[in-house]
Amino acid sequence: xxxxxxxxxxxxxxxxxxxxxxxxxxxxxxxxxxxxxxxxxxxxxxxxxxxxxxxxxxxxxxxxxxxxxxxxxxxxxxxxxxxxxxxxxxxxxxxxxxxxxxxxxxxxxxxxxxxxxxxxxxxxxxxxxxxxxxxxxxxxxxxxxxxxxxxxxxxxxxxxxxxxxxxxxxxxxxxxxxxxxxxxxxxxxxxxxxxxxxxxxxxxxxxxxxxxxxxxxxxxxxxxxxxxxxxxxxxxxxxxxxxxxxxxxxxxxxxxxxxxxxxxxxxxxxxxxxxxxxxxxxxxxxxxxxxxxxxxxxxxxxxxxxxxxxxxxxxxxxxxxxxxxxxxxxxxxxxxxxxxxxxxxxxxxxxxxxxxxxxxxxxxxxxxxxxxxxxxxxxxxxxxxxxxxxxxxxxxxxxxxxxxxxxxxxxxxxxxxxxxxxxxxxxxxxxxxxxxxxxxxxxxxxxxxxxxxxxxxxxxxxxxxxxxxxxxxxxxxxxxxxxxxxxxxxxxxxxxxxxxxxxxxxxxxxxxxxxxxxxxxxxxxxxxxxxxxxxxxxxxxxxxxxxxxxxxxxxxxxxxxxxxxxxxxxxxxxxxxxxxxxxxxx
Length: 586
Description:
single chain; alpha+beta; five-stranded mixed β-sheet; three-stranded antiparallel β-sheet; 19 helices; 22 strands; globular
């Protein structure tokens, strides 16, 4: 099981649109929802011409307010610059490509924006790993001797289309209305992942016209093969039932089995399983540091980049360290040849313009939508965000999500200080004495080494100590737990924030992970850290403070609630690069 994903979409002409845009100013609010604004062409025209725009009460159609369109636009841009919310859905562009207009208008999308659906329709998604579609060809054809295996790509597409169509028939639907719409329209969404790795293998920079041309050809091949397979499925099994209610579809497409065949999802978990880049994103980084037991550092390296380093005889741990310290980028690293630097670009090496162009190029051959993040550096301006929004509309994108690096974890809205970092650990001048009387609760924590009993006590100043007891523990484990509890208690009475203590404990792995009530427990320290977070939330609840809501959202944004891994923004969603957990699903 995994948590349900949610998105809230409101039209830009709704009378409450200004409140909606600001509803996630505080990163601690509404963390289990993405939000997007449905933008109309009329609004975009008003923005470009600096005209007034009417807000309408949807219940009676009356105009409730008239204000400059630029006022709404600037608030949208500021929100996206501030913390990536809200995203934008170009709703008129979406409905221009609505395959079944007789059945209604499309009003929203799934949580990451790739499935543009009618009410009660469902996602049925799959992804082809493009990194596996590359084969050696004669050197005179390509620069580095690799080319696209078009025959394999077409064959895999045909198989995947049939597979997804069959999935619709064996799925357990949560509501009868969803089952009815899903089976009557039979929409499927076949997409891709590993696009960034494919470009690496082909020696093509992501930010190049050559990459855009290949994107058009790749998705054109998939879209055509999926469509013709759907025609054959219609001959074998019949058209989708609502085909008979859709004259415009009949005229445009003829007899097919599926009302839609393609879309591109974020593939957070899938790409980790397949060990490839996600969706149509570039690599987020070429090298990551991983801290394991005994303080040892391991390096996680993009497999294509690693192979290239070894083939050139320049692979070394020292070089990996240098690239990891360069935010995972090889740009400017003198040991990396210039031709490699040109090809092996990562998300933040690529300008927003090229990100948007790539999304738009894929969109030309995609039935539904595309989930993609337009990653911006931390120093990006509001003008950069505005330009990305405008370009996306001009190029025919159905939606756009931007994310300015680090904006969620260090942005403090109430002060307006964009440079403010995470609250530093307080330097303990004095450890206050343990009070004579404390009160607390003992909780049995599940770990890979058996039950661990944790007692968290508090006094008038809050949580002040931790006791640990493990019945099945040997002498070494007992000593370890006692020492950990004593040091934690000292830190608590020295004024160290609980979030800093739990952050140090979470993510530590002992090699005996287990699942406990939907949460992955990596070790005893990991279990303790997560338990301390819950205790802190309970304290804040008692004191009337809004809790961080770790279980429902992704707060703190930079660390995964399941495994403690680092959260990155890819495919229009926050994804853990270690375990793949996201609020958008796989």
